[in-house]
Amino acid sequence: MNTAYLGARRVMALILAAALLIQGITAGLLLASPGGRGIHRATAILVLLAAIGSLVVAIMTRERKQIVPGVMVLLLVFVQMYLGFAHFKALHVPIGMIMFGGVVHVLSTLYPARQHAPA
Fold first, then answer.
1. Where are the domains of the chain?
2. pLDDT in tens, 16-33
């Protein structure tokens, strides 16, 4: 990976992971309170902006292995938004969980485990 953009990739992946986590929390609010729908929609915009930002940083790296996942995440966000507006929860919830798992996987590759030297 181009190390010049590693910091930006890390920040955008953290923002996207946080946005998806907040989206899951507001999904619970959607089910528990009448005002939850507006909060869930507002955080969907946050997820969309984070996905766009992540794609922009991936394009700046000019590496195909960074750009393709960025495009896929953005497409999944659009699919999620469509499924959410259509109230098709049977796919909306599982795809959201898959997206969060994918972002956690990306974070694990951007923040590799530290190797400790033997004493």
1. 3-110
2. 999 999 999 998 888 888
